[in-house]
Amino acid sequence: MAAHSLDVELPPVYCPLESSLHPHVHDVERRAVQWIDDSGMCASEREKAWVVATHSADFFARFAPVADDDRLLAAVQWVYWGFAFDDARCDSGPLSSRPAQFNALAGQVQRACETGLAQPEDRYARALQDITRSFRSFAPPTQVARFVHAHRAWLSGVAWQIGNQAVGRMPALDEFLSMRMLAAGGFPTFALLELATGAEVPDREMHRPAVAALTEMALMVASLDNDRHSLHKELSRGHADQNIYTVLMAERGLPLQQAVDEANGLRDRVLRRFLELHDRVRPTAGADLATYLQGLRYGVRGNNEWGLRVPRYLSQGHWPDEMEDTRLVWADEPSDLRPGPPAGAPGVAWWWDEDLN
């Protein structure tokens, strides 16, 4: 993608969802930055500065604006940790195209997530162990187990992505969507909703096919939005690899601008289906499931508000001072009104099943 023009036009974002922000976000951020210092996970001041610049407190404070401060802090610590680990070990670090070495580290990291008994060698694994110890101090085992399982799903997706990178393999659209859902880290991020808010969704509700579909659709929209947020930065640096645009360009022989438009339509179709299914499930949801579903809505919107401003995705590398930033341009209507699932993606077509319950 390095040869493509930086003047590609990104369409406005369709996102008719509620916006909210935790009132104590700045205090939580201050406490989280202190934890980053104390955790030892950053090897240098430069590395720490880039982790702090992810503004992860702002990110997750938009997902869980009603959370208890201490619970929110623990969740935010994981988000800071997740971005740091992704940058250093997954996305562009030395293991980003070395699957065997990454898998060995991922095993150690996942075990640190699961148990507090062993003392891991890796600094990120030790910091993760501290975070999950906090989770266990205030959350029931069911909610912690859901996070642990979601964490494993994320690492499996990253391993899948790194395996492709190692052999220069561009996945087809259907495979990419399944991989992206995992590798983007959305499953553990949304699993944090219960930990932060104190909601305890019963298994019979959380594992309903309709709720599973809503979770997958929310994180798919957020994942595709993240590809959008990072596009200009990746173009300017010439290192874009597997994202929705490169996949569509390779599979369908599209120029970049057309791939951007096609991806936007796909994303809007998923969000439209999310809204339809949400409105069918929400009226009969119990109180805890309703809290979780609202967190999905807050998360999709908040990921956009954060992602359109955060230095991680901006080639300018700074945090805009005002929310009235010119990047926050919202569409009044979805760009694709066609019914049913998108073509070429049978792995997600079940989201449109009318028998979902």
From TrEMBL:
Q: Which is one Pfam family of this protein? A: Terpene_syn_C_2
Q: Which family does it belong to?
A: Belongs to the terpene synthase family.
PANTHER family with a match to the protein in the record: BETA-PINACENE SYNTHASE-RELATED (PTHR35201:SF4), TERPENE SYNTHASE (PTHR35201)
Q: Which EC number(s) does the record attach to this protein?
A: 4.2.3.-
- Which cofactor(s) does the record list? Mg(2+)
Report keywords, A-Z. Answer: Lyase, Magnesium, Metal-binding
Looking up InterPro entries in the UniProt record yields: Isoprenoid_synthase_dom_sf, Terpene_cyclase-like_2
Can you tell me where the transmembrane regions are? none
Matching entries from Gene3D superfamilies are given as:
Farnesyl Diphosphate Synthase (1.10.600.10)
Q: Which SUPFAM superfamilies match?
A: Terpenoid synthases
Keyword Ion transport in the entry? The reply is: no
On whether Lyase is a keyword of this UniProt record, the answer is yes
Top-rank EC class of the record's enzyme: lyase
Q: What is this protein called?
A: Terpene synthase
